[in-house]
Amino acid sequence: EPFDYYMFGQNYIRPLVDFRSSYVGNVSLFFEMEEKLNQGHNIVLISNHQTEADPAIIALLLESTNPHVAENLTYIAGDRVITDPLCKPFSMGRNLICVYTKKHM
């Protein structure tokens, strides 16, 4: 049976998030985004994340209010997330566009 890497990543990171103190600011924007996505529009979010766990944390914080957005975000990442043995299992559960830098080509 196929292994669910998405849930693996979610369940691994879940205990590390303090949900009582964490929140999504401007959550109304995510409701608006979900409505636009359901209408067939495209949306691009740009952020400068700091850790490999950020996609899982974003999905965890959105799973109760916007599960469709949480599960269907597509991330752009450097090649390390699919070549590093510690990162790869978490990356396999995400919609991912991998960018290879010039120095690795």
UniProtKB/TrEMBL annotation:
GO terms for biological process: phosphatidylglycerol biosynthetic process. GO terms for molecular function: glycerol-3-phosphate O-acyltransferase activity. Pfam families: Acyltransferase. Residues 31-101 form the Phospholipid/glycerol acyltransferase domain. GO terms for cellular component: chloroplast stroma. SUPFAM superfamilies: Glycerol-3-phosphate (1)-acyltransferase. Signal peptide: none annotated. Gene3D superfamilies: Glycerol-3-phosphate (1)-acyltransferase. Keywords: Acyltransferase, Transferase. The keyword Mitochondrion does not apply. The keyword Acyltransferase applies. PANTHER family: GLYCEROL-3-PHOSPHATE ACYLTRANSFERASE, CHLOROPLASTIC. This is Glycerol-3-phosphate acyltransferase. The gene is GPAT.
